């Protein structure tokens, strides 16, 4: 038996690795699970290599084989009988966290803390700053496709106004399209009330815009991002130094700063042009000043206190809500200064900059708006009410998409660490509570299009100190393992938000269809509706008044309770087991992963039961099965019936049906009747079922006005076919009022799915437009589709796929913008370079790919124009290159 242990561990590893590459869908008619597992050499080799590594690691020290036991979680969705919905959660990307935990357990077995010595000196501080800068910089690079977004371009327009015009009047900057240097879309001034001189001033405070202005002047938006990364890295180094000095432990300080720096709420604000990241660094300097009062009992110098005051003086200029932080921190510092030597001199030095800044800040509003009221830019309406606080506070902490602890559970140890730093806890609460009351009473506490817990970030960095205290105070192995597990989960969530979904997971806003479904949860498992099993506090869009806030808070806190109970029970059980049987690191790590893995299944199961939710979402899982079957050699299995499914039989087992929503009250009438995301290339049949055949239905692939098929409902009752030569973002079915009232369900069934080698591209079509003689699929956002033609953006290279109705060549009528232009068209063997005069048109004949009946075309326009720059009456700020019309 002892000799068999390494082989058993290797076998479990190989099986788990192979299953991790597979996908599961639900056969809707029969309710059975359909599995698609790859059998190509690459995936088999990876599974074998993982097994060999485990066998080599455990062949001599068999006790370490326990580290692979958490891989049993990976097997749960694949059991050959009907399983609970919670088991299916381990069929998606969520399994990566199990592998991460197993890897961390193996690493801990070889880790000896006695050989790790960290010194509190400048070298270590520099190393911390360097590592932080690299992590933040790589994260910014990974998310470069989606930033700047939200309010970032508005802050950058203020920067451009300061640099180009020397003022804060932004109307001319928007009119010139200055923002096109970093933002592709159309950006209108974010203004509610004009200044007293009739000029347009942004509602956003100019502080962070002025802060990044020197860097922007040197290198544009990339330089501004690099500057913010350096500021954030320096702040992390300062946080580590403060934590190490107050705790006396450099190792504990590392845990403290890692808890903050690697959390998604902080990391995602280290490189975005928002005021919250820089404000967190300033607030940390305020807590540095509080600690300095203990360290400088006999020091009578005043220069450092002037700098501390200067830092706090910046806060109101970054955002009006930061005035609360400046006031409470400044008051605390003055109280603490009174106990030091030369208190009056230090106090005066500290107050000089804040006093001047406060006078200038109030004067700014008087000069620009004619009133000292800081809410003047918002027209006097700040949409706040203390009745919103329960929902806002719950959401800021626990909401699945925007909550601090939901996306960074390790920070729970920071709050626990306050028990060892009571004075720091009191001071942090004095600073944080008034500020958090202000932001949680705000109607949009989630901050619109934003990363998690944006409004919490300014008071986040000081939590590195109590987190270090918590690590230092942990006395039992189970709690320390729990802290490590919480840090691993926090890092995993951050990695997912930064790298998953092409950057669309990190920043989002509330779901217009109802309470927020965090995009990262939908991405993590397409088969199970994880979002309905976690707390959600964002109110319904149909009514964001008090009644909807009360409902959101109640449902949110009801979902918090099962999670708190299950995780607490797991911790107590782990402590009990660690005292008796879990003597080595391998067993303790495995038990920690299994305990919290079981808790993570029990908690959403309880929430689903309380909400009477349907946790299984078959549509996305079925599309994954089709996509995997088309990507290469696979074996498809009916898990319940334990039999293999042939490739020809597989499409007949896939049906995705959706109930047509009936609008109630003020519900949107333009919402799609049906939507199915991430559809692989192929041919599909769309069928409607209802009580009558009145009305029209339109099928397209995007959330826009274009439809590929528009037919009466009577045609859809018999089934309408749509074909896609490439993968598409979604199948979206819309309807008129008659169809909305009389169609009950819509079903999509695959007729044929294209293999990877049959597709023209691996990219996903974002839009598709049906023209007179062909359908054009747009694979990027560098084109502007219109009903009769499409524009290629100026200075861009757009990729499209053209699928004509009849075989043969496709003729393009290329009409240039009213400027000289160089246009390149590439399609297979065709390469045409056109030199076009202003307004000139030429025709280009593009041959089809005879095997696919379509053609992949890349069109490059070297320059372009903005209609708003030519016609003063036009509000079209797009940068257009050439117009293409299909003949």
Question: Could you explain how this protein is built, in words?
Answer:
Helix content is 45%, strand content 16%. It has 887 residues and is of the alpha+beta class. A six-stranded antiparallel β-sheet has the order 14-15-18-23-20-21, with no helix packed on it. Strands 6, 8, 9, 11 and 13 form a five-stranded mixed β-sheet that branches. A hairpin with an 8-residue loop joins strand 8 and strand 9. Helix 9 (207-247) runs parallel beside helix 21 and helix 24 packs antiparallel against helix 25. The longest helix is centred in the first third of the chain and has 41 residues, at 207-247. Mean pLDDT is 89; it is low at 664-668.
Main sheet, how many strands, which sense, barrel? 6 strands, antiparallel
Shape: globular
**Which strand order do you get reading across the main beta sheet?**
14-15-18-23-20-21
Count every helix, treating DSSP H or I runs of 4 or more residues as helices. 29
Helix content: 40-55%
Overall pLDDT, averaged?
A: 89
What class do helices, strands and sheet pairing give?
A: alpha+beta
Number of strands: 24
How far apart lie the N and C ends?
75 Å
What fraction of residues sit in β-strands?
Answer: 15-25%
Low-confidence stretches: 664-668
**Radius of gyration, rounded?**
30 Å
Label this structure with key terms.
single chain; 887 residues; alpha+beta; 6-stranded antiparallel β-sheet; 5-stranded mixed β-sheet; 29 helices; 24 strands; globular
